[in-house]
Amino acid sequence: MTQPYEPEQTTRAEVDAQRGLALIEFGTNWCGICKGAQPAIAEALADAPAGLQHLKVEDGSGRPLGRSFGVKLWPTLVFLRDGLEVARVVRPANAGAVREAMAQLG
């Protein structure tokens, strides 16, 4: 993996108040599907817009940030512009799926 999923440290209120472009990637460090998706995610993010903030958040039952976004499967990538969701990819199979969602950031 490129970087580990970090324990949840950001609240939904902080996410909603954030300005600029962001990607929140929900998953876990032990998830095989998350590990398998990392090369496609990394390939797509090589073309990311300048200033895109990428947060990898460890998710699980009872974790409020993931629940507030309705995350049910990992990895789930939520693309945000000024705190508002503009695109989502669940279990990306290839870099193209991530690029397509990222393109919606404008």
Task: Tell me what you see in this structure.
With 106 residues, this protein is of the alpha+beta class. The chain is built from 4 helices and 4 strands, in the order H-E-H-E-H-E-E-H. The protein has a 4-stranded mixed sheet with strand order 2-1-3-4, covered by helices on one side.
Q: Based on the coordinates given, report the CATH architecture.
A: 3-Layer(aba) Sandwich
Q: Low-confidence parts lasting 5 or more residues at pLDDT below 50?
A: none
What is the beta-strand fraction?
15-25%
For this structure, the CATH topology is Glutaredoxin
Radius of gyration: 12 Å
The largest sheet, given as strand count, sense and whether it forms a barrel, is: 4 strands, mixed
What separation lies between the terminal Cα atoms? 27 Å
Number of domains: 1
How would you describe the shape?
A: globular
Total number of helical segments? 4
- Helix percent reads 25-40%
CATH class: Alpha Beta
Secondary-structure-derived class = alpha+beta
Main β-sheet, spatial strand arrangement: 2-1-3-4
Number of strands: 4
Order of helices and strands: HEHEHEEH
What average pLDDT do the residues reach? 96
Q: What would CATH call the homologous superfamily? A: Glutaredoxin
List the helices and strands and how they pair.
Elements (H helix, E strand, L loop, with lengths): L11 H6 L3 E7 L4 H14 L7 E6 L5 H5 L7 E6 L2 E7 L4 H9 L3
Parallel strand pairs: 1-2
Antiparallel strand pairs: 1-3, 3-4
